[in-house]
Write a structure and sequence with these properties.
By secondary structure, the protein is an all-alpha fold. The protein is elongated. The termini are far apart. It has one domain. It is built from 4 helices and no strands.
């Protein structure tokens, strides 16, 4: 079996110049999408949320925000008529 680099070169040499440009643009698009994903891991739906929720790293800003919200709720309980 050929390695991917060799196969890609062989295929690209058989393409017209405009199709080669499309192949290059598509490759760049794929590469930029890979860079945007954290660690190259693709997750969808529930699996992603479970990983996020179960992450044990401290979140000081989130904790401070939640503490502030809870203090405000104790000071002025939510009035359902204002919703």
């Amino acid at each position: 079996m050929k390695n991917a680099d060799t196969e890609l070169l062989e295929v690209s040499r058989k393409l017209s110049p405009s199709k080669r440009r499309e192949l290059i643009d598509y490759g760049r698009k794929l590469y930029s999408q890979k860079d945007k994903k954290a660690g190259g891991v693709e997750e969808a739906g529930d699996a992603a949320w479970k990983r996020i929720i179960n992450d044990a790293r401290p979140r000081p800003k989130l904790k401070a925000y939640m503490d502030r919200i809870l203090r405000e709720e104790k000071a002025e309980p939510m009035d359902s008529s204002k919703l």
